[in-house]
Amino acid sequence: MSISKNLNNIKSELPKNVTLVAVSKTKPVADLMEAYDAGQRIFGENKIQEMTDKWEVMPKDIEWHMIGHVQTNKVKYMAPYVSLIHGVDSLKLLQEINKQAAKNNRVIDCLLQVYIAEEESKFGLDEQELDEMLKQVQHDKDNFKNIRIVGLMGMATFTENQNQIEKEFKHLKTIFDNLITRTDAINRVSTENIDMKILSMGMSGDYQLAISCGSTMVRIGSSIFGSR
Ligand SMILES: *Cc1c(COP(=O)(O)O)cnc(C)c1O
């Protein structure tokens, strides 16, 4: 199957409210261009250097999403152009994103990564850390003028057990819904830099399940571009 056929098949089954991020990590620019020519404008990468190399040579109407773990000292390389950072999991990282965004006169959208898997290897915040981070951003909003928290991201356990994956996705959706109720209340009083609207969950193997659990953004790589 060609990339454009894969892409069109997936797009045809996504509900209207679900955004597709085409995860193009490790793939050559020619492959990305095939997806671009088929209409795809949002690409996800997990390494800042690789994403920047691709950004430099590809059309400028592409939205670049950083979906991988971000090292603080590399934020500066993507700050001029990145449109959404999915994996924000510490206040220190958020402060650096804010600083680099300010240097570029930008506001950078971020998702907070929440730990939902039963694995030691996945990054992310637990619920208490998430709470503390949001409180900090609300409390100290003058120091976070160049970031906007627009939602949450999570990755389920790498397992064949659909029940477990479903349980984890539903858990994240519950956290997300609870926050929306609360941030609505808070927003009426103050904050412009928190606007919970995106729930990024679901990859090639589990995106249908993620969507049925309330995902609004799926990150799909191998089902579009082939295995890596
Ligand atoms: C690689 C990656 C994906 C895409 O994985 P596929 O199984 O190829 O669809 C999604 N999200 C993150 C965070 C990734 O690193």
UniProtKB/TrEMBL annotation:
Keywords annotated in UniProt: Pyridoxal phosphate
Domain (Alanine racemase N-terminal): residue spans on this chain: 3-227
Region forming the signal peptide: none
Cited Pfam families: Ala_racemase_N
Keyword Magnesium found: no
Stored SUPFAM superfamilies: PLP-binding barrel (SSF51419)
Modified residues (N6-(pyridoxal phosphate)lysine): 25
Highest taxon of source: Bacteria
Recorded family membership: Belongs to the pyridoxal phosphate-binding protein YggS/PROSC family.
Function summary: Pyridoxal 5'-phosphate (PLP)-binding protein, which is involved in PLP homeostasis.
NCBIfam families xrefs: YggS family pyridoxal phosphate-dependent enzyme (TIGR00044)
Protein name: Pyridoxal phosphate homeostasis protein
Organism annotation: Flavobacterium fragile
